[in-house]
Specification:
Helices cover 73% and strands 3% of the residues. The protein is an all-alpha fold. Helix 1 packs antiparallel against helix 11, helix 2 crosses helix 9 and helix 2 crosses helix 10.
């Protein structure tokens, strides 16, 4: 019985870690700005598409340079995609933050509607540039394929993706808890007036947080692309569970987002073992069960999501 459940438990754990990684950028933006960024999923998708353009390669560069880059081993191209895709998506985040400035201090509904429109624009931009077909992000041979363990075949890439997600989550925690930037972010989320009184430029801080959250979304897109595939509407597939994880864990709570991501992943994985048609619905049932007893989520506090 346990052996039969093992693949679903492992898949749920890895999926949960990746959900947490997707949600962290969302959490930072929502925690500081009290704005619900529905374009987060489109930034996630852009990260996957830019990674595909770098790794395949399909870059808008001169043919000689493109041919030389194609001759580079896939491992180096994948590594370049992992590093460069978030950097290329960062300006989109800076532009979105610039457009959102008129909504600061107002009803969060304004920011929600604005970012919903931006998400639609970005999805149409993706369709215009890359078309509507599905793509697959190639991964190095050492990360692809499977291996035998306990008479079962396991995906090597899923384990690597989970390990990378753990490392990325740890790095975000160090930045938030052990750096001056992280201290300013937490202070800004608690009381922006005090932060401004201390001489900190809250506008620059918000821009920095938004770019940081954007790069996290793009990084998650690169990691998830070989698992989910690359398609124009993949942003919706990412932003819905990310938003659910934030509400479930508690708005503004780092460890709440991580724990909620793991819970959602495990519930989806285990429900898939018995009733695959319920696997996606199960995370919404989990949310209902938690907020029935804890309206602000596992570790939540009063936020912009409340009237």
């Amino acid at each position: 019985m346990i052996l039969n459940l093992m693949p679903h438990l492992v898949n749920g754990l890895t999926l949960g870690l990746l959900f947490a990684l997707i949600a962290l950028g969302f959490m930072l933006i929502l925690g500081l700005m009290e704005q619900i960024n529905l374009a987060h999923g489109s930034l996630f998708a852009l990260g996957a598409y830019f990674a595909y353009a770098i790794a395949t390669p399909r870059l808008p560069i001169p043919p000689d340079m493109l041919q030389a880059w194609a001759a580079v081993p896939l491992g180096w191209r994948y590594l370049a995609a992992l590093v460069l895709a978030p950097v290329l998506v960062a300006p989109f985040g800076a532009l979105i933050e610039r457009l959102m400035r008129r909504t600061y201090g107002k009803d969060p509904l304004y920011g929600l509607l604005l970012t919903f429109g931006i998400a639609m624009v970005l999805e149409d931009l993706i369709r215009t540039v890359w078309g509507t077909r599905d793509y697959t992000l190639p991964v190095p041979r050492d990360l692809s394929g499977g291996f035998f363990f306990l008479d079962l075949i396991w995906s090597r890439y899923r384990f690597w993706a989970a390990a990378f997600a753990v490392a990325a989550i740890a790095a975000v925690w160090l930045i938030v808890e052990r750096t001056r930037f992280g201290a300013m972010v937490k202070a800004g989320a608690h009381d922006t007036e005090i932060v401004q009184a201390l001489g900190i430029d809250i506008g620059r801080l918000r821009t920095g947080v938004f770019i940081f959250g954007t790069m996290l979304a793009a990084l998650a897109g690169v990691i998830m692309a070989p698992i989910w595939g690359i398609r124009p509407h993949m942003g919706v597939d990412a932003v819905v569970p990310a938003f659910l994880v934030i509400v479930l864990g508690g708005v503004g709570s780092f460890w709440g987002a991580v724990l909620a991501g793991l819970l959602v992943g495990m519930v989806v994985g285990l429900s898939g073992a018995y009733a695959s048609e319920w696997s996606l619905l199960s995370m919404y049932l989990l949310l209902i069960a938690v907020v029935t007893f804890r309206a602000r989520g596992l570790f939540g506090k009063k936020s912009a999501l409340e009237a």
